[in-house]
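U., I forgot to send this yesterday:
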Amino acid sequence: MSDCDFLIIGGGVAGLSAAARLARHGRVVVLEAEDALGYHSSGRSVSFSHYGIGGSAVRGLTAYSRPFFENQAEGFCPTPLARTVPSLHFATAEALPALEALGAEMAKYSGAIGWVDAAAMSALCPVLRTGPDAAVRGLIDPAGLKLDADALLQAYPRAVRGGGGAVLTGSRVASIERNGAGWRAATEAGEAHSAPVLIDAAGAWADRVATMAGVRPLGLEPKRRTIIVVDPPAGLDPRHWPFVHAAAGDFYMLPEAGQLLASPVDEVDEDPCDARPSEYGVALAADRLEHYTTLSVARIAHRWAGLRSFVADRVPTAGFAPDAPGFFWLAGQGGYGLQTAPAMAEIVEALVTGGEWPIGLTALGVTRDQIEPARLPGVSLGEIGP
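Result:
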């Protein structure tokens, strides 16, 4: 006997957004191991939607998702899901080819992108170092979106519960087994849930969940990223500064609540865990901040690290496992989980229920074979467990 139609393991933005869509088609149960939703990745993201990261598939997913944030459905969330914050990508002379290539890609998805010189960059962000030995040219997207991760992590569960489903925290899965034509997952607390479809949205732990179920892993690679928070210089208000990115891919800075978030854009291999910033990562973040800006880091107000998990081609993955009927992958969101969640949730809805692939995604060049797990090396080699 099944107690739900769709059983989702993982209460990050990927699992929750998919759950909210599937709640229209049946009863959904979400099992989250931690006591808080989005604890490891979604809740530690800088929560910004822009076209400066990922390949063409990620940019297409991002473009498709924007209307969800900009024109949110009535009753979904009592507060705005996003606010407009410009995004500025800059380059030193050595990095100009990378910036020009990025600009060509970004222009495919946004007509608002424009080029700015050193003087304009200084006006946008007074602490950015400009000139011959620093930033010489920039690419500005005035339509970047700062997303409200907390609002999303509350709104999606409301939609699930409103549809008769359940979102259960502190429910770490201890075992998974086939249950007739479906799946049964038991938690460490001894509770069990069964469904015809089990969706693995466990983030950095997704391969471990699959192995527990006897399903061939995707080969996920969790990467640790470091963030530090510093105060701006006295007399400067950063609230209207853009989200600043180095075209070299080794630095970004974002104004947040009167302070500045900065990262060295590090990617350190890490086993699934409650990620903590290393002293080296923190020092590297401070060094990059001082290198690219005129700021002097005398005090770090806060620091943290989060996990970003990728598959081999760095494209988010959704689809039924070729080696296990009813086992559905939703994994590998990397650093794009929040900004692509609406698109990925519609993809999950279509693939799980047998619906049509969203025509808007096709128009943006995002196809099923780019997203489904069978594209990945070794995934379709056959069953490895019971």
